[in-house]
């Protein structure tokens, strides 16, 4: 029986999908140019500017779990509003202030907002969607965020590319407008289901850590994002060493090919995934990752390196949305935001550790990096496969 689009996505779900696309579009329209914008305005060192721009990621890693647990105790309406207004204030601070410490404060406020935003979007989508449609909605959301990632930088280049505050002003204004719309249309009674027994944050954190499925998903997210962060770090250095100055252009081409592959292929994968069991999808995704890694490191032909980019993208399509769907299904109703925050912390940790570890291994020997990535991919298969198996066993009880 075919499921109609309107039955799968209600008004609130659709609103959160629009938010997901809009925010990713606006982030890619402005944040990639933040370093340039601040360097044009300030007289401090590039290292200091890098420190400022890195604070939001560090804040997400440090307080993300606590912030998500707080959101699990209030309504989605106010969680969504806070997750938008905090980044708005932080971005306005980048425009208004030139004092180093005020910019650190702005970056901190922005980081607090993003630590709320990322898990609450996933939780809102899963809470407003029927269980049997969660995987499809997660696929749609994944496609929408990637579409925003494609269009954002193009628009950002045309409206200043870091030479004017225009992209950041637009970002702030739209964040304010979306928060007003959220106040109007998100029901106040839409909130995570409250546990009959009131528990402390410490009890909630221990519940997650003791949940083998959550720990396996944390590990899976760490592995997949560790591989992804190499695209812009150690892989770019590898291609530069291999092809000289042309290597930089190859990196840009690879990233573009991967993104466009996701945009074009994702809708078809969404249709296929309904008919294929999750463990098989994960195995297919890992197969693509292994093929991509072997092609990338053992081919000296530009065309085959581009083929590896397509395979990397296919691996990502098969695995990442499926892991998001599994997270939504394993989380207790009253701890969904906290669960999403916990497993995505694996990705945040990978983005923190991935560049230095990858660059260190590449400097020692490219074969070491190749071997380590294969280990990450194997671990990804193990952790994701067993998290799904554990989920299926719990559902069958």
UniProtKB/TrEMBL annotation:
Entry's localization field: Cell membrane
Main location: membrane
Transmembrane segments: 12-38, 44-66, 78-97, 103-121, 142-162, 168-186, 214-231, 251-272, 279-298, 304-323, 335-354, 366-388
Family matches, as Pfam families: MFS_1
InterPro entries in alphabetical order: MFS (IPR011701), MFS_dom (IPR020846), MFS_trans_sf (IPR036259), MFS_Transporters (IPR050171)
Domain Major facilitator superfamily (MFS) profile: 13-391
Keywords: Cell membrane, Membrane, Transmembrane, Transmembrane helix, Transport
Gene Ontology molecular function terms on file: transmembrane transporter activity
SUPFAM superfamilies, A to Z: MFS general substrate transporter
Gene3D superfamilies in the cross-refs: MFS general substrate transporter like domains
Protein name per the record: MFS transporter
Topology within the bilayer: Multi-pass membrane protein
Cross-referenced PROSITE patterns: MFS
Cellular component aspect of the GO annotation: plasma membrane
């Amino acid at each position: 029986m075919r499921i109609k689009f309107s039955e799968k996505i209600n008004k609130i779900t659709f609103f959160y999908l629009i938010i997901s696309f809009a925010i990713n579009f606006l982030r890619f329209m402005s944040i990639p140019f933040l370093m340039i914008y601040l360097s044009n305005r300030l007289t401090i060192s590039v290292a200091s500017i890098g420190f400022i721009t890195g604070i939001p990621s560090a804040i997400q890693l440090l307080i993300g779990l606590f912030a998500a647990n707080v959101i699990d105790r209030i309504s989605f309406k106010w969680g969504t509003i806070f997750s938008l207004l905090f980044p708005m204030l932080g971005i306005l601070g980048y425009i208004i202030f030139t004092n180093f410490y005020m910019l650190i404060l702005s970056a901190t406020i922005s980081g607090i907002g993003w630590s709320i935003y990322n898990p609450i979007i996933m939780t809102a989508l899963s809470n407003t969607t029927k269980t049997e449609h969660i995987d499809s909605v997660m696929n749609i959301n994944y496609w929408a965020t990637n579409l925003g990632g494609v269009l954002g930088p193009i628009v950002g280049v045309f409206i200043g590319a870091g030479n004017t505050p225009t992209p950041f002003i637009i970002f702030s204004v739209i964040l304010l407008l979306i928060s007003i719309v959220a106040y109007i249309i998100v029901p106040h009674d839409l909130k995570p289901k409250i546990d009959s027994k009131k528990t402390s944050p410490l009890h909630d954190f221990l519940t997650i850590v003791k949940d083998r499925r959550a720990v396996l998903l944390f590990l899976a997210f760490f592995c997949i994002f560790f591989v992804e962060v190499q695209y812009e770090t150690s892989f770019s250095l590898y291609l530069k060493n291999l092809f000289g100055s042309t290597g930089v252009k190859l990196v840009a081409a690879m990233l573009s090919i991967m993104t466009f592959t996701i945009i074009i292929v994702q809708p078809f994968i969404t249709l296929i995934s309904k008919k294929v069991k999750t463990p098989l999808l994960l195995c297919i995704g890992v197969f693509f990752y292994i093929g991509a890694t072997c092609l990338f490191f053992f081919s000296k032909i530009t065309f085959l390196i581009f083929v590896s980019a397509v395979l990397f993208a296919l691996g990502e399509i098969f695995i990442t949305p499926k892991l998001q769907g599994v997270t939504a299904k394993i989380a207790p109703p009253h701890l969904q935001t906290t669960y999403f925050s916990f497993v995505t912390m694996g990705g945040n940790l990978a983005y923190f550790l991935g560049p230095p570890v990858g660059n260190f291994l590449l400097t020692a020997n490219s074969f070491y990096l190749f071997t380590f990535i294969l280990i990450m991919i194997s671990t990804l298969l193990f952790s994701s496969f067993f998290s799904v198996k554990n989920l299926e066993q719990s559902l069958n009880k």
